[in-house]
Specification:
134 residues, alpha/beta, TIM Barrel, four-stranded parallel sheet, 5 helices, 21% strand
């Protein structure tokens, strides 16, 4: 079973309490890194330190705040520290997936998927290459 950091579950203290209470090797975390940063107001270093051992899958996307709303932008062009998120998790020996989440259906004003997916692949590959070179 995997719980996603989303909605009412976006901060490490809440998620850690649930994961520890479950206390089972088949219970893990899907880290929606955008939500813990934007909604949970949590630095990725805190998330990885507190929850890294539970993270089995990661959703990545970048965004900027416009007023009180988050708007998705191409990876690396927004306010979410996606590079830091990737590098911190990769440094732990993470072997899960970095999954790109592009919600064009719910946000028709964002870039076309053909543009965003290709951009994500290039940008995140660079982040991982930089991490492995260290």
């Amino acid at each position: 079973m995997i719980i996603e950091s989303h909605g009412d579950f976006t901060t490490s203290p809440i998620l850690k309490a649930i994961l520890e209470k479950a206390n089972h090797p088949n219970v893990a975390l899907l880290w929606d890194a955008n939500h813990t940063f934007v909604d949970g107001k949590e630095d990725p270093a805190v998330t990885v330190e507190q929850l890294g051992k539970y993270i089995r899958h990661t959703h990545l996307k970048d965004s900027v705040m416009r007023g009180n709303e988050s708007h998705y932008v191409l990876t690396g062009t927004g306010e979410v520290p996606v590079k830091k998120q990737v590098q911190l998790l990769a440094a732990t020996g993470y072997t899960g997936s970095f999954s790109f989440e592009w919600e064009k259906v719910w946000h028709p004003d964002i870039e076309e998927p053909e543009v965003a997916i290709a951009d994500y692949a290039k940008v995140v590959a660079g982040y991982l290459k930089d991490t492995l070179a260290k």
